[in-house]
Amino acid sequence: MSLLKVTNLTKKFGKFTALDGINIDVNEGEIYGFIGPNGAGKSTTIRVLLGILKATEGGAEIFGKDAWADAVEIHKRIAYVPGDVNLWPNLTGGEVIDLFVKLRGGNNKSKREELIKKFDLDPSKKCRTYSKGNRQKVALVAAFSSEADLYILDEPTSGLDPLMEQVFQECVMDIKKEGKSVLLSSHILSEVEKLCDRVGIIRQGKIIETGSLSELRHLTRSNLLVETKQTITSLNELQGVHDIVEKDQALSFQVDAEELDAVIKHVSQFGIVRLESAPPKLEDLFMRHYEGGKQTEAGAGGVS
Amino acid sequence: MASNLYNKTGHLSRLIVRQDRIRIPLWLIGLTFFTLIVPPAFVSLYPSQADRNVMAETMMNPAMTAMVGPGNLENYTLGAMNTHQMLLMTALVVGLMSILLVTRHTRANEEDGRIEMIRSLPVGRLSNLNATFLVSCVTNFALALITGLGLYALGIESMGLEGSLLYGAALGATGIFFAGVTGLFAQLSESSRGTIGFSITVLIIAYLVRAIGDVSNETLSGFSPLGWVTSTEAYSSNNWWPILLLIGTSIILFILANYLNAIRDLEAGFLPSKPGRKYAAKLLQSPIGLAFRLQRTGTISWAIGLLLMGLSYGSIFGDLESFFEGNEMLVKMLASKEGYSMTEQFIPQLMIVMALLSTVPPVMAMNKLHGEEKKGRIEHLLGRAVSRTRLMASYLAISVVNGFVMLSLAALGLWGAGTAVMEEGLSLGMVYGAAIVYFPAMLVAISIAVLLIGFVPKWISFIWLYVFYSFVVLYLGGIFQFPEWVGNLSPFGHVPQLPVDEMNFVPVIILTMIAIALLIIGFVGYNKRDIES
């Protein structure tokens, strides 16, 4: 069942088109990854979903209600964490958490305490003394101690340290187990890969790709850099190898995860001197979409 | 060891002097000017001993003693009078100067991380503290010398050299004492706010202990450094021991501050910084509670300010009639009407000023809604189960109550002080009515702010232009003789000028209706537009 449905959403600020006919579907119990570079329109989409911005054309429905007209009703069942958490400098973190939880309705004291402990937050400090990460923790504690049905998280981990990112991921897995839905905006691909069932990629106000992770198999390609004693031959004949580039003595290319074994076996015949592997970066993905027309063969494996 | 701790103190002192090369001279010039301008004024106000004895008579009551301390009322010479009425107040200001200067160069410097850089250089651990002490001691010594010699140079008969120097020394010693107090609290407290707060608390407690002691029990005053200041009795008994006592205590404070600085870590303090609330109070947990909480301090300050303004306007009512006779300009500003006293004719003029000033805090309270939006904090509320109407209504409710309270306080202050100083008293109903009749005009101003926030938040400043316009055309209108329509462009121009005018409900009702209409339009607009980010 579709919990959140965005249909042909367009948002213009004057002449500038921020969102251009966006379609998103988030089903019940699903974690939806919403990825794209800065300024692509992620936050604008989320603001429309929250009824803070009004759609120019098209619209969004959450729980079958209109995101603009029924905002208050919808918000009773939503928890939201903004990407840039601005708080009131003279209130303490604890006060802000209580205020946020109360404004949404409902109260869960034990969960609040547990989360404050988990995120290692000092709630007695004034918000002016908090770093970006700590302000984000305040918003996260407020969101996760609410009993919401849909969690809208806008780049929630951009200020967190790796340990806290781990805690965040646990929290998301917990609410998933409870059958709740999440819309997670991010540009950290590893986080999205770990958590999300389905992914939508936005670029310049358009959804350029959407589907489950297995459908977007190329997201899980690894970047390899191999230097060998002898020159590697017939690499381009192997399956799942893309974007071969010669760099000095070495070759750099991308490999689909399931072909990795075969490719390494092939390459190792030539006497490996150096082998570097890196997870695919989001930029690579976008680059491929730009160059999609020119390098169809090497590039867009999963593009429909 | 010692040289290691105090290395480069001289250099740092020069750095402090360089930073404060304007600030310190300004304090010194201000305090000297203030000290030297009063005795000549006393000479012209109370030329004969008989005049001064009358003054002594009026000063002889507990309220005055509590305020300015004991004085030599039996032999109330010009010098005794000056010491009695001026020394304690000036000493308070000198104490404040020292508190601000020392905090600035110790804890504030440390809090901002500048001391960390200084300390990474070959500079002693205690150098900055002692450089600060050195500069504040030199400053206060200079103050003592300049004011002392300056007072003597006035050449007033009863103000001899010893008394003058003692008067200056009392001021300087107070400054040095509070430099020591602040230096100590700069070690104890972790923040510059705390340092200033604790030090000013000591200053105020010293003043209060002395006030209670002077009225009831002299021994108690002996515990207050400000009690020592008045014990100098400059120009009368000329006691020097309080100066020695002040300097001696200051040295102990300096040593204590040095010791604490030596044993503590950089940026650490001894008093734990007070943790805030872990949970939100019930009051805070709603949009209106939050809006109130965010503006609490500002609102209270405005309320006190407007009450004081009312009081100070009211306090001149005592000799208003004689005052007006000598001022043609003011007479011109008042549309003179038969059958009303000058005071009654003056009231509408005051009311316009008070109403317009009382309009500032409620409009600020309303504009806060847009301020929060610009800072990206409105999303937190609208992203939860709070409708835009409820949000805007919360700010509106606070703004309207705010305006009502401000106007009432100004009116009550005016009435309270006026009725106290006038022989025949003032009618509360008349004064309050003359003020509150402006409330609908104030509502119009608030509703214009709502309209702007609802449709064109970028132009929010227009409301200030409008309030300022109202002030210019209505308050100064009498002088410039503007045509009537200029004043009528302002809602405040339509309000009947009680008590001189008859009460007329038509404009009041129309203003209220305009306000309601503008509010409705503003709310509709706010519900339709995008929230800025």
UniProtKB/TrEMBL annotation, chain A:
PANTHER family on file: ABC TRANSPORTER ATP-BINDING PROTEIN, ABC TRANSPORTER ATP-BINDING PROTEIN NATA
Family statement drawn from the similarity comment of this UniProt entry: Belongs to the ABC transporter superfamily.
Domain of life, source organism: Bacteria
Protein name listed in UniProt: ABC-2 type transport system ATP-binding protein
Entries under Pfam families matching the protein: ABC_tran, DrrA1-3_C
Entry-linked InterPro entries: AAA+_ATPase, ABC_transporter-like_ATP-bd, ABC_transporter-like_CS, ABC_transporter_ATP-binding, DrrA1/2-like_C, P-loop_NTPase
UniProt domain ABC transporter: residue ranges: 4-229
Organism: Virgibacillus litoralis
UniProt keyword terms in alphabetical order: ATP-binding, Nucleotide-binding, Transport
GO terms for MF: ATP binding
TrEMBL record, chain B:
Protein keywords: Membrane, Transmembrane, Transmembrane helix
TM region positions: 24-46, 86-105, 126-153, 165-188, 195-213, 240-260, 300-318, 346-365, 393-415, 435-456, 463-483, 503-526
Top-rank taxon, per record: Bacteria
Protein's UniProt keywords contain Transmembrane helix: yes
Protein name: ABC-2 type transport system permease protein
Species for this entry: Virgibacillus litoralis
